[in-house]
Amino acid sequence: MRAILFVAVSIFSIFAVPAQAAWQYTNWGMSPTQVQKASKNAAVPIGDVEHDASVKLTAPYSTGSFKFNASFSFDESNKLDGVQLKLVQDDARELIGALHNKYGEPANDSSSPDGILKALLWRTKTDVISIMGVGDALTVSYRPRVGSDGKGL
């Protein structure tokens, strides 16, 4: 009886949790102010350095042993539409392995045969995750999965 109850509760919990289009403490479509608040003010405006105009905030981010500089990009309506994580320490191979473990085999792997240039892409129901880099200089990008009409797929 306990086993049946456990299975029933497990199945219910899978369906009871709605899929969220988000990255960590953010949700796609948030304003810069909302991202700052959600980050507990860890995300700060980018200074006067030259950068992609859509990137408005940056924050340190770590998970497990990985440390990153996170950049938050916003669309023309000032809504969050991407997060880029630049690896600042650790082994790129470990990071790629961790993403393989989390998301499975990539939908596309255009990395060079020698492994120096890395270009991998995963798709979930709500997001597109990609890695681009050379050697251990990697950037992981998270973007919402949207169609040309601006609606989710």
Can you put this structure into words, describing what you see?
The chain is of the alpha+beta class. The strands form two sheets. An eight-stranded antiparallel sheet has the order 3-4-5-6-10-9-8-7, with helices on one face. Strands 1-2 form a two-stranded antiparallel ribbon. A hairpin with a 2-residue loop joins β1 and β2. The radius of gyration is 18 Å and the shape is globular. The N terminus is likely disordered.
Shape: globular
Oligomer: single chain
User: Within the largest sheet, what's the order of strands?
Assistant: 3-4-5-6-10-9-8-7
Ends apart, CA distance between termini = 40 Å
| Estimated share of beta-strand residues | 35-45%
**Largest sheet features:** 8 strands, antiparallel
Q: Could you list the spans in which at least 5 consecutive residues all have pLDDT below 50?
A: 1-20
What structural class results from the helix and strand content? alpha+beta
- The sequence of SSEs as H and E is HEEHEEEEHEEEE
Radius of gyration: 18 Å
Helix content: 10-25%
Give the count of helical stretches: 3
Mean pLDDT: 81
**How many individual β-strands?**
10
